[in-house]
TrEMBL record:
GO terms for molecular function: catalytic activity. Coiled coil: none annotated. Residues 388-471 form the Pyruvate carboxyltransferase domain. InterPro entries: Aldolase_TIM, NAD(P)-bd_dom_sf, PYR_CT, SDR_fam. PANTHER family: BETA-KETOACYL-ACP REDUCTASE-LIKE PROTEIN-RELATED. This is Pyruvate carboxyltransferase domain-containing protein. It comes from the Eukaryota. SUPFAM superfamilies: Aldolase, NAD(P)-binding Rossmann-fold domains. It holds the Pfam family adh_short.
Length: 503
């Protein structure tokens, strides 16, 4: 066992970072917290910096209570580098969106946190995504806030830490946590400010690497892809996330920060990376590979393979028409859940609907679910539909949304009820369940208005619709078309209705 540890230490010297002092911004949660804990286990002393001092203190308490015999390092080595058994983590309040003097004050406090032991590595992890908006809807205030947090903050913290490193003539390592959103092949619509700020972080990384090399300060960046973390944990619980990974990630899964990111960060902190600077390390399981996207048609797959139908030629005409006229136009996103998507509406469709709902004066986006007899009923249950709805309402106001369900398997009402509980109050339906779909063989047609109104009446929801007169209308049109009523309510209560002549 001892020999295996010696071999491992020789091949991976960055497993042990005894005596290194590392400052981590955005350390109160998410990746920042995880970085602090992992670096502490490697033997580092941690300066945890963020705005939420109470949560920072929680991180520091957890680190200071860690056993010095943790598996990733030997107790003797760690003990030798913690004189007097002092704290291994200290909290420093830092708002990266503050002005320069305030940030400099926090950096100076962090620099002196461990006395003669100075900061050797800085991890610029603090950042924020901001709201999802197109460039035309993005406010100047939102733009400035995202840039102040992600780019200006990273520059100012790096500047003041690097000045102290230079003056101490000690060298050091700066690691910026960026994103694949800042990479050309990682762009997505709706995140203009975030994407531009992360692209700026990548450029900042390269230019500072050029300028600080003379002081033996290396600067690198890590650009993660789809990762599970404390902040994204809730998102990763969604059942449709694996489907997203299956479509856009060549390795067909999402990443976990430990060890995918933590091991890389350890390496960039360790002295063995002293000849490594100016690099943007992309850790995304191949998501942004140009050859993969080009040969496999990944961007097209994200839309087409999820069975999202965008009528592009008509959409341009509709946009122009709706912009100039005060009319209501329905933009219908039809998603064939069972065929490909497994219930996940692709981000491209969400952003497109969001853009249209914001740019057009009176537009309603309809989330439509339908299927023929060759599609399994389980795909249309609320367990499948609700995750899609939750994803969309995070980007589009509920008053801009309607739901449209066909009733092939008798599940339309349960899905409508689930939609109402989420906050969508506009429901498409048709009298007597008319309007089948020519593209879905065996499709029974849209849910009957009679059934929807009857359910709402039973729930005590006011509709101002007389269900008996509604059934008379359904009976009239059904007889005219020579078909049976598609309404279960009309069939069940038909004997109690008045003759059509009294309508």
């Amino acid at each position: 066992m001892e020999n295996s540890h010696q071999v491992s230490d020789h091949l991976e010297p960055w497993r042990h970072l005894h005596g290194k002092v590392v400052m981590v911004t955005g350390a109160s949660s998410g990746l920042g917290r995880e970085f602090c804990l992992d670096l502490a286990k490697a033997g580092c002393r941690i300066v945890a910096a963020a705005r939420r001092i109470d949560r920072l203190q929680s991180v520091c308490n957890q680190i200071n209570q860690l056993s010095i015999t943790a598996p990733s390092f030997s107790s003797s080595a760690v003990a030798d580098n913690i004189p007097g058994g002092g704290p291994r983590a200290v909290a420093v309040e830092l708002d990266v969106s503050a002005d320069g003097p305030a940030i400099e004050k926090s950096v100076n406090k962090a620099w002196d946190a461990f006395g003669v032991e100075r900061i050797y590595a800085l991890v610029n992890n603090a950042g924020g995504r901001g709201n999802v908006n197109s460039a035309l809807e993005l406010s100047e205030e939102e733009w400035n806030h995202v840039f102040r947090t992600n780019l200006t903050g990273s520059w100012l913290v790096s500047k003041f830490v690097a000045i102290r490193m230079r003056d101490a003539d000690q060298g050091g390592s700066i690691v910026n946590i960026s994103s694949i959103a800042g990479i050309n092949r990682g762009h997505l619509p709706g995140g203009t400010a975030y994407i531009c700020s992360k692209a700026g972080v990548n450029t900042l990384t390269k230019t500072m690497a050029m300028e600080l090399g003379v002081h033996k300060i290396r600067v690198n960046a890590i650009s993660p892809g789809l990762f599970r973390s404390e902040i994204t944990g809730g998102l990763m619980q969604k059942k449709w996330i694996p489907n997203v990974a299956m479509k856009i990630v060549p390795l067909r899964t999402y990443g976990t920060s430990d060890p995918a990111l933590t091991s890389l960060l350890r390496y960039l902190v360790h002295d063995s990376s002293e000849y490594v600077s100016g690099n943007i390390y992309i850790v995304d399981a191949g998501t942004t590979l140009p050859d993969m996207k080009k040969s496999e048609g990944w961007w097209t797959d994200v839309e087409e393979m999820y069975a999202t139908k965008w009528y592009t030629a008509s959409k341009i005409k509709i946009e122009n028409l709706a912009t100039g006229l005060w009319i209501e136009i329905e933009i219908v996103i039809e998603f064939a859940i069972a065929i490909e998507s497994g219930g996940c509406l692709p981000a491209s469709a969400m952003f497109g609907l969001h853009k249209l709902s914001r740019q057009m004066r009176n537009v309603k986006g309809t989330l439509a679910g339908f299927g023929g007899g060759n599609v399994e009923a389980s795909y249309f249950s609320s367990r499948t539909v609700v995750p899609m709805l939750e994803a969309v309402i995070g980007m589009v106001p509920t008053d801009k949304l309607a739901v449209h369900f066909h009733d092939t398997y008798g599940l339309a009402l349960s899905n409508i009820l689930a939609s109402l509980q989420i906050g969508i109050s506009t429901v498409d339906s048709s009298v007597s369940g008319l309007w089948g779909c020519p593209y879905a063989k065996g499709d029974s047609g849209n849910v009957a208005t009679e059934d929807v109104v009857y359910m709402l009446n039973g729930l005590g929801v006011k509709t101002n619709v007389d269900v008996k007169k509604l059934m008379l209308a359904g009976e009239f049109i059904s007889k005219h078309l020579g078909r049976s009523s598609g309404s279960k309510t009309a069939v069940a209560l038909g004997k109690d209705t008045a003759p059509a002549s009294k309508l």
